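Progress against Task 2.4 (sequence-to-structure conversion) is shown through the following example record, which the project officer requested during the mid-term review.
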Amino acid sequence: MAKLIKYVADLVGIDHVGLGVDSVIDPDEIVKLSKIYPATWPNVTLAEQRKKVFAQPEQLPRLTEELLRSFSEDDVLKILGGNFERVAAQVWH
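Structure tokens generated for the chain above:
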């Protein structure tokens, strides 16, 4: 994942990169939510969801270590939430 983050940062700039850590990891839960909110998750099947691989929260420390090999500490802080915090402060008054 660190290589992908580096690729995106090189493509669009470090100020536009962040991790979306709000995903639902349990495939069964996604299928339940798709029935409640079909406009958000149309045509979701359990088989489709079980094919997807999500990063687990316990993987974040290792990812952080990997990011620190390619980015400064300030840039890693941006990736891990600083960019979202900055945009939220600018948008939500």
